[in-house]
Structure to design on (230 residues):
């Protein structure tokens, strides 16, 4: 990034959607039951050795992310809204990376024989993202970016 | 020119000017003033930077949902 660009204090929102052949109930459980979450959480190369969820408004969660280089990064936050099986909203903070608290809003919308999962990642702060690029979460994300560009 | 920019939108020129002012403050457009004529030019570089770092988040969630799909679709009767 060019050094002469003034720092932008704004925030961004990202929306990612995916159709999955399962019911909202099944997906909500996979997302909120730690025993299930550890079995799938993490993009390619990232595994999830541990997850703790106190599933109630104001309750905390933390999810371990083991990166390809062996380091462990914890993502943590608080539940803001819990509406089984259709919606889950929580704050999002990546340990030692996030400069600000972001927010993730997950919706499970039934469509015929499948469910559309809609992830809205809000309040993504430029500064936090820049820091993350510097710290190396990006190292893992670079690989992911290649995956996304392929998709 | 602002009149031109406003044409496709169903809002007043005053409202368009307001939006342009915000874009200008965010340094996403630059403005050249020639008498009463204001010419706005898009400055795409900051948007490119935003897109660059958003790509990481997009990749993260795309792959994460892929993993979720694989988990629930490979064994839909589990639990």
């Amino acid at each position: 990034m060019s050094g002469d660009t003034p720092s932008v204090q704004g925030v961004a929102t990202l929306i990612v959607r995916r159709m999955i052949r399962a019911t909202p109930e099944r997906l909500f459980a996979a997302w909120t039951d730690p025993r299930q979450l550890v079995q799938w959480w993490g993009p390619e190369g990232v595994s999830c050795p541990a997850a703790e969820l106190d599933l109630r408004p104001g309750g905390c969660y933390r999810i371990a992310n083991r990166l390809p280089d062996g380091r462990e990064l914890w993502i943590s936050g608080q539940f803001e809204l819990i509406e089984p099986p259709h919606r889950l909203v929580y704050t999002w903070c990546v340990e030692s990376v996030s400069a600000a608290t972001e927010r993730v809003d997950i919706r499970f919308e039934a469509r015929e024989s499948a469910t559309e999962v809609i992830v809205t990642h809000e309040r993504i702060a430029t500064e936090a993202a820049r820091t993350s690029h510097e710290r190396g979460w990006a190292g893992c994300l670079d690989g992911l970016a290649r995956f996304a560009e392929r998709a | 020119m602002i009149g031109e920019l406003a044409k496709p939108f169903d809002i007043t020129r005053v409202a368009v000017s307001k939006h342009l002012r915000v874009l200008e403050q965010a340094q996403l457009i630059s403005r050249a003033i020639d008498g009463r004529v204001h010419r706005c030019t898009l400055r795409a570089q900051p948007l490119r930077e935003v897109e660059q770092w958003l790509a990481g988040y997009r990749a993260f969630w795309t792959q994460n949902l892929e993993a979720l799909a694989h988990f629930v679709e490979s064994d839909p009767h589990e639990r």
Observations:
- The first strand of chain B starts at residue 29 and ends at 34.
- Helices of chain B lie at 2-6, 13-25, 45-74.
